[in-house]
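Collaborator request, handled under Task 6.
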Amino acid sequence: MEYSPQEKYEILEKKDLSPSIAQHIIKAPLIAAKAQAGHFVILMAQENGERIPVTLVDWSPKEGWIKVIIQAIGKSTAQMNSLKTGDFFAEVAGPLGTPVEIKKYGTVAGVGGGVGIAELYPIARAFKQAGNKVISILGARNKDLLILEKETADISDSVIITTDDGSKGKKGLVTDALKELSEKEKIDAVFTIGPLPMMKFVALTAKEKNIPAFASLNPIMLDGTGMCGGCRVEIDGKPKFACVDGPMFDAHKTDFDTLIKRTSAYKDLEKESLDKFSKEHNCKIGLH
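Structure tokens returned to the collaborator:
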């Protein structure tokens, strides 16, 4: 079956944030009307393409658009980031998942790493709107990979930047910044989104300080409706599905080690597929 442009989801604006990360504003009025912080969508760049889950970064019910930020880690995400303003996604399904419970904690620390900064943004904004003091800790390997700094600063009481190489902010890890922050003032809750190893150690750091912590998990996912079981995670010793039960879970009850093993199963195949796509299209895309 062929799709007409009217049935597709137009990219109203596409912006490259780094060689491997791009921002897409997509026309999707029905999704925008129902979106909440923590929701995600599943994208297909073309008919019969791979289904890719991506967390919503922003949305406008009035104007009918949603915003996502995609990092190219395989062929399908590289294809998506090769699309331009005026192109179309074949399918956008959502909003999916369980939205984050937004309530008044007091002081909330949001810890984002890499592209997880984009996913943290709407959650931090919602907590700020609910009357919390929001302190955002943003981490990346270097300054060129930091995203949404200004946007995050606009909805936070303060922002702490860390980079592995010290090219911006404090040299070190987000866990160093969280530990230092918790020693200066009382933190009532921690919400973290980023690479699984990062979230694991953010959770351990929060646990040492007896701070409740929540992590947005990113397992392998296919249908996004709880039917395939591909996104199974272990929470407090019990199986849960990130697509319908999450993606946000109690970080102190999450089995990160098992999840890290499961998500790394296809790393070599992803790299092989991405390298092939880059050569075929005479472009250099990858993790930097």
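The cover message to the collaborator said: "The first helix runs from residue 29 to 34. The chain has a mean pLDDT of 88. Please let us know whether this matches your experimental observations."
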